[in-house]
Amino acid sequence: MQISKRIKSLSRSQTVEITNLARQLRQDGIDVISLSVGEPDFTTPKEVIDYASLMAEQGKTKYVATDGLPEFKQRIQEKMKRDNGLDYELNEIFVGAGAKQVLYNLFMALLDPGDEVVVPDPYWVSYTEQVKLAEGVPVIAHTTADTAYKLTPEILDEVVTEKTKILVLNSPNNPTGSVYTLEELQALADYLDDKDIMVIADEIYEVLVYDGEHISLASISETMKKNTIVINGVSKSHAMTGWRVGYACGDSEVISAITKLQSQLVSNVSTPAQYAAVRAYDMDHTFLEEYNQLFKKRRDNAYQKMVELPYVTCIKPEGAFYLFPYFKETAEKCGFNTVDDFVKAILSEKHVALVPGSAFGYPDNLRLSYAVDEDTLNEAMDRLKSFIKEKL
Ligand code: PLP
């Protein structure tokens, strides 16, 4: 059987692969600490689980509308108004099987072969692969630690061409933890104002901001609202990664196009999972405040320990749950040619799973997820420290 060229040329998600490898080692009885995961370490709030099972018991187990359960779309509408100051009609909202699937639908619906999509690096692994699947061309806008890995109009201007159709902007960012300020978003909005470029604003880590505040790009101006599709979901906000519920808000024509695609792909997102998401959005907001405080404490601890490691430099992340330190010099001083080799060695020798920056198009760094409890993080950082000490 010949597998298609499309799939042959597709890269596997390195973050998923490393997480699977760590899981496998653990099943084999090895005490692996995984700092490679992109999900909160605790389970979904009990009231969310209870509500979903109650709804299932009451027979809410049938197909529902392709673009999303009306009750959940209404909660999204209220949330966007309350938290982001954005008014969307119900036909401007679409629910998909996680933000990941919503993004896939968008690239499929918006790109013709050869259309360019600007993706700032370091980037979340799936953007570029999904663009390629849709026969688009990912164009990398290179950012550096000098701007805290944030895109500026100057960097953007270097890569925009007449073929640019989409810009992907992710704030709070995976893998860097950077959060765009109002001024930074304003500057990008000014640059984009007279351009025919659709922005996909991936705001999946919205609730995990520790310094400053999350501002939705779409809320900057009427033009930005028209030209932006906001992506969000419950995976990271309510520890609901396995339920697979994410959504998009934006132009009704685009929403209608991705709904048409969805009707041939998935029909609709799992009905009980959408009820679970309804409950998540109805929950008392103190949950989110406590959640945020917990991650802020973890961020502070992880960051402090990271910058104490020899030759490591790291921007202090303002959001999400990752550190993205520059590790090249440390890796080299420890006798490794690349950060990839360092990451492989520490997994096999000290059983700590990290993700090499190459997975994000940024090979001199690595990503550490601090979505783990304090003891686990401390133990991992001790292993990292002693590994480096032994090798230096
Ligand atoms: N966008 C970013 C930046 C992510 O890091 C992730 C998950 O890791 C997603 C989207 C996908 O989220 P979901 O679980 O809703 O598909």
From TrEMBL:
Which GO terms of the molecular function aspect are on file? Answer: pyridoxal phosphate binding; transaminase activity
Output the Gene3D superfamilies linked to this UniProt entry. Aspartate Aminotransferase, domain 1 (3.90.1150.10), Type I PLP-dependent aspartate aminotransferase-like (Major domain) (3.40.640.10)
Q: Origin, by domain of life?
A: Bacteria
What keywords appear on the UniProt entry?
Aminotransferase, Pyridoxal phosphate, Transferase
TM helices/strands, residue ranges:
none
Q: Single Gene Ontology BP term?
A: amino acid metabolic process
Q: Record keywords: Transcription included?
A: no
List, for all copies, the residue spans of the domain called Aminotransferase class I/classII large: 31-384
* One of the Pfam families matching this protein, by short name: Aminotran_1_2
Identify the EC number(s). Answer: 2.6.1.-
Q: Does the keyword Transferase apply?
A: yes
* Co-factor requirement: pyridoxal 5'-phosphate
PANTHER family in the record: ASPARTATE AMINOTRANSFERASE (PTHR46383:SF1)
The record's family statement is: Belongs to the class-I pyridoxal-phosphate-dependent aminotransferase family.
Q: What is this protein called?
A: Aminotransferase
Its ancestry begins with: Bacteria, Bacillati, Bacillota, Bacilli, Bacillales
